[in-house]
Structure formats: C-alpha cells, structure tokens
Fold each of these.
Amino acid sequence: MSGLRGVLRPMRGLLLPLLLIGAWELASRQGASQAYAFVPLARIGSGLLELLASGELWLSAAASLQRTCLGLLGGVLGGFAFGALMAFSPLAERALGPLYHALRQVPILGLIPLLALWFGSGEFTKVLIVTLAAFYPMALNAFEGFSHVEQRYREVGRLYRLNPLQQFLHVHLPGALPSLATGVLHALAFAWVSSVGCELFLATGMGLGNLMMNAETGSRMEVVVIGVLCVGLLGYAMNQLFSRVSRRLLRWRAPRP
C-alpha cells in the first residue's frame, strides 16, 4: 500500500490538468459555437503536428525566447547597477528614487504606443520593452538586497580592514545574493510576459504572440490554443530552471531556524 502511495504521489499534480482537459473536450461537444470557443482536442493535435512539420512553431518560440533573453540580460544588468547605486548613494536615492518609483507604477504594456511612436514597431522597440519590464523588479530587489545586508557582516569587513571593492565582493554581494536571485526570478517572469505581450501589440516579425494574432485573424483557434500552451509551458520551464540554479548557487547559506 505504501509503495502504491509512493507511485501515485508524484502524479497528484496531474489530477487537475486532466480534469480540465476532460471538461474542455466535453464543452467542445456541445454544439458548433462551443466547438469554436473550445477547440476539440483532435483539432489541437492535428494543428500541433502541422506547426511542427512546417517549423513555424519552432521559429516562433525561438524568436520569443531570443527576445526575452536579450531584454532580460539588459534589464538585469541595468537594474543591478541602478539598485546598487541607490543603495550605496543616499544622494542618488533622493535624486532618482522618486522618478523610478513613479515610472514603475505605469504598466509596461501601456508604454508601447509611445515607444512605437518614438522608435517604430521593429525589433529594437520590442527588446526595449522587455528590457524595461526586467529592469524595474531587478532594480528594486538589488536596492533592497544591498540596503539590508546584516550589520554583523559589515562589522566583520571593517574588522579585517577591507577596502571598498573587497567589502563589495566579499560582504555586500554575498549578503544581497538571495534578494538578487529573487529579482532575477521576477525579472524573468516580467520579461517573458512582456515579450509575448509586445508581439501581440506590435504584430511584425516572428514570435508566439504574432503566431497567435495571425491565427486569430484566420479563425485558427486551435493554433491560438497551441500558442497559449507554449507560452505557459516555456514560462514554467524557465522558472523551474532558474529556481534550481539559484538554489544551487545559494546552497552555502545555512537554513534559518
């Protein structure tokens, strides 16, 4: 009995998805209008095979991932530098903090019309939107991490007479790592969502958002569903990958009692 429980325990997470799939298929059999809104699983399967055979799904996913990675890199580096600057310089915090906190309240997708007017609707604008989406959470977590390094660690640095660079590398940076890891995780989520979102608004080039918009225009609802599933699965996979990497990087930290 205990062995059966051990086999079934990892499968508990599949229960709700399987119930939702069953409800979806049942709803698709309730008439033509329902079949349009809730595409039958057979059509979704055939649409997936078609997209895989043509390579369109691979190209779209690769374009979205590339855009996300470029924007995430720029946003994380910029947010790290900006957050550290505000944490170590009270003057910078007073001068730049109010503007930063005001701008981060504006939904990033709400800036798309303005950015498109300034820079056009090409690849640069899309990467810029993703960069800004990643910048805000990274800057906030970097500021919080560096500002709240435990005082005992700072005292150890002063006791060993470390110079400013040594204090940053051996005291402040390790102390802020958990907050920095959280910032990257949040930045990743915002970057992925904004990458697909800007593709929906700026329907040029390749990407999962563009794939879904073109499918909706052509009444290919099975492709829209496939696009949504790909967005969710890729986002989940990236989240899980970074969570494992961050846990490995922070394994040296003693667990809190």
Amino acid sequence: MIDGERAAPDPREARDPAGFVELLHALKDRAGLTYRELSARAEALGEVLPRSTVANMLARNSLPREELLSAYVRACGVGPGELERWLAVRKDLAGRCRADGAAAETRDRPAGPGDGPADAPAAARAGAETLRRAEGPPPGTDLPRGPVGDDGPDQAGPRDGGPGDGPGVASGRGERLRTWAARGFVPLVGLLTLAAAATTVVAFLRGPGGDRPREEAAPPAPGPVLLRALHSGLCLNERPGQQSGQVYQVPCAEATVPRYSLVRLGGGRWRIRSDHPDFGAGCAGIPVDLAEQHGAPLVDQKCGKRGSREEFRIEAFDGDAGREAGHRIRSAHSDLCLRVRDASREPWADVVQEACREDGKGQLFGFDPPGAP
C-alpha cells in the first residue's frame, strides 16, 4: 500500500469499467505522480509504461489490458497483495461485461415460430385441433345430408368410388384418405420447425461471416518464419543493397534478405530477429528518436540498442466476413500496431507503426514457414 494519510482507492468499489478507470485516476492522484514520473518508475521496476499509453488508458471508459494495469498500479506504488486485488476486480468486470453483452444479444434477437417454450403449447393445441378436424366427429354424431349431386357424406361422386362401390364405401374411403393426410401433416410441421432451428444455430455458430465459419488464428511459434501481410499476400523484407535496414513488403519469393525468426521473450512479448548476409544478426524495431511517433518506420538494427522498442506483442485476430484470420503485431513500447502504409498492396510499400484498427485493415500478418508458397 502507498504511504500517506489518504487511504488507497479500493478497486472493489468499481461497478463498471468507467468506475474502474475513475479509481485508477484516484490512485494516480494519491501517488502524486506525473505521467513522466510514472513512466520512470515503471522503467525502474523493469516495466514499460509510455506516457501516451497512460494518458490513453485514463481517457477511456474501457478496461485496460492486464499487463498495462499491472505496470501502472505497480508504478503508483501498490504492493503485490493490492496488485492481485486490482487484477481480480478487472477480471470480474471483464467477465460481467461479456455476460451482459451475450444477454443483450439474446434479448434483442427476434423470436421465430417455435422459438421457445411459450410457443410449444400453442403449436401442440393447433396440431391437435387439426387432427381432430381431420378425424371427424365422434361416433354417433349425426351429419347433415347435402343435396343430391353435392358429393356430401351420403353421396358418392365419380371420384369417390368405382363400379360396385356403394355410397357408404366411397364416403369412408374419402374420409380415411383425409385423415391419413392430416396425420402426416403434423409430423411434417414438426420436422420443418426443427430444420429451421438447426439452421439458426449453425448461422449463429458461423458468426457474421455468413456462409463462412469464423476462423481462429493459430498461435505463432518460435523459429524461422516468413512474415506475410495478409491483405496483400506480400512478405516483409529489406531492400537489397541498402544500409538503412528499413522494412518493406516484397513478393515472398524475393524475401531472402534478411531471414526472420521469432524469439519468445516471456510475458507475452516477442522479438523479430533478423539474419542479414552482410550485417549479421539484428532485430526489427522502431528507431529510438521516433519511438512513440505515429507513422514511424520498422527498421532492422543490431539487437539490444533500442530496448523495448524492439519488442512486440503478437495478438490473434479472428477472421470473419471473408477475412483471413491473422495477427496484429503491437509495439510493446508505444502500443501502436505495425501496418503496411496506407494498407497498400503494392511491392515496396514500407511498414510503419500506427494506431491499432478495429478492422485490422493493413495490420494483419501471417507467420509462414520458410519456403512456403
């Protein structure tokens, strides 16, 4: 707990994400730290907490990511026991938000025929009434006699019987046919209802992609890899003969300088290691002087010179509506995402860091084994 006269805010008082963020504000106010001081404290604790990231977190009414919350709370001076409490409350609020969203979706879905238990009695009564009418009145009930030529119950028309059939035989045969037809109708309605329900369930499981089921991006694995931009099908690489190390998208068959591999660092972070035939081993990252700048380029340089600016979080991004499942590569220092500039499909478009997009346009990447077509 932070030393001081004022009591530390209790995260358990939060009732929703907005209230949780308000308590994070209160925690910062109690610590009496500026954004710059928070960033410096986090760095001393071995964390990365850019000032812009803190400002963005406190300006929203949504729950921060767990690793961001942990770094922020620790920088504010909270001890391990209190940190676990903050993380537990965040997890509980996230679960409630997901549950509330699912319930709202269920409530908003229009009900169809036979959709719920309330419709079942009415459907059963309607089916029973149909069957009763088809089977005719109970034995002993007098039926009205129609006029001659009306094909009434006691009159046999030409469709009801053949030579030698009396009126009673013809009428009984017609009644039996109608009864069996009605008895077959009720099961048919039931089968059609079940088919409609099954179609609804399949459509729900497939998600908004319609005929195409949602795809899940397979988690990346450490080792050699081709970094492929999904929107263009091109792979990341340098321009042969240049010394800047700047990264572009090129045809995958030409993506040989440098060779890339993924290195797992722990804590959900990765390093993109490069192996250049002329300059040796290196790492992809953002230049130090442009670390938090929107539109800063991705550059291959010697490893270890830029610290967290050459570390990334790789986030799965599920595919739907005809979009291939892939990953966003988020800069650990700035929280910005790698993107082919302007989501270009042309070779030699450069790769930069920009604000992460909800639709992932130009920011989704695949990790293919070397030599993949």
